C-alpha cells in the first residue's frame, strides 16, 4: 500500500474536541518555540465589523484551543457594569433587567480606555462610559379605528437597545465619535411595555475581561475546523 499523508478534519466545539487524534496532535514531535514560530501562519480569510474568519496553519489542536480560550476570557471589552434604576414600572424585575442590559454588546473600542480601579467610587472620562434609558409607554391618540395591532394601539410598547443614549463625560465627545459608542446592534429587544409602564435608568459601562464575567467576552460565536497530521500508513 502506498504511503498516505492525509490531514483529517478535527472539529473544536465549545466544550470538547471532536474527532481528535489520540495524541491530540502533540506527541508525534518534540515541541520547540523556534520551530513553532517558524511554522505558525495566520491567514485572514475575511473580516468585517462583526466577524472574522481566519486560518491557523502549522499549529496543533492544543494550541488552537488555547487561542480559543484566550479569546473568550482574556480579550477585554466594554460592558454595562452598573444600572441605577430611578423608575421601573414594567413587568421585568430590577435584577433581571440589569442582567439583560449588561449582556448587550457595546462597540466602544476597549483599547481607548483604562481599567477602572476597584476602589474607585466614581468613574472618569478615561475608564467609564455613561448611558441613560428613559422610555414611557402610552396610548396612541391617533390610532386607526378597528385596529388591534400593538403598533397602532401603543407608543413605545417595545424598548430596543437603539433607545440607549450616550452621555459623554468631560471631553469624551471630542475624543470619541457618537457612532462609535453604544450598542453594537440597535434591534435588541430589552422589554415590552403597556400604557403606564416606564423605564428611567442610568447605565455605567467599564472595561473588563471574560474571565471576570461573561458579559465582557467579545466572542459571540466561534467555529474552529482544525487540520492535523495523520500518521503515514505503510
UniProtKB/TrEMBL annotation:
GO cellular component: RNA polymerase I complex; RNA polymerase III complex
Protein name: DNA-directed RNA polymerases I and III subunit RPAC1
SMART domains referenced in this protein's UniProt entry, alphabetically: RPOLD (SM00662)
Gene Ontology MF term list: DNA binding; DNA-directed RNA polymerase activity; protein dimerization activity
The keyword Transferase appears for this protein: no
A Pfam family hit: RNA_pol_A_bac
GO biological process, one term: DNA-templated transcription
Amino acid at each position: 500500500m502506498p504511503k498516505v499523508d492525509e490531514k483529517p478534519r478535527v472539529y473544536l466545539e465549545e466544550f470538547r474536541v471532536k474527532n481528535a487524534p489520540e495524541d491530540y496532535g502533540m506527541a508525534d514531535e518534540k515541541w520547540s518555540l523556534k520551530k513553532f514560530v517558524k511554522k505558525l501562519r495566520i491567514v485572514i480569510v475575511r473580516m468585517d465589523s462583526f466577524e472574522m474568519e481566519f486560518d491557523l496553519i502549522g499549529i496543533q489542536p492544543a494550541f488552537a484551543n488555547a487561542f480559543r480560550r484566550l479569546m473568550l476570557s482574556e480579550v477585554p471589552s466594554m460592558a454595562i457594569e452598573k444600572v441605577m434604576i430611578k423608575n421601573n414600572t414594567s413587568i421585568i424585575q430590577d435584577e433581571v433587567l440589569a442582567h439583560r442590559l449588561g449582556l448587550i454588546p457595546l462597540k466602544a473600542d476597549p483599547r481607548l480606555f483604562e481599567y477602572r480601579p476597584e476602589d474607585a467610587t466614581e468613574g472618569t472620562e478615561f475608564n467609564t462610559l455613561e448611558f441613560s434609558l428613559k422610555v414611557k409607554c402610552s396610548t396612541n391618540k391617533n390610532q386607526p379605528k378597528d385596529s388591534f395591532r400593538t403598533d397602532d394601539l401603543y407608543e413605545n410598547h417595545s424598548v430596543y437597545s437603539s433607545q440607549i443614549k450616550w452621555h459623554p463625560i468631560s471631553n469624551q465627545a471630542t475624543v470619541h465619535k457618537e457612532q462609535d459608542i453604544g450598542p453594537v446592534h440597535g434591534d435588541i429587544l430589552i422589554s415590552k411595555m403597556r400604557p403606564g409602564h416606564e423605564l428611567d435608568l442610568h447605565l455605567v459601562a467599564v472595561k473588563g475581561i471574560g474571565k471576570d464575567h461573561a458579559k465582557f467576552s467579545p466572542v459571540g460565536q466561534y467555529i474552529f475546523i482544525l487540520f492535523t497530521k495523520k500518521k503515514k500508513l505503510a
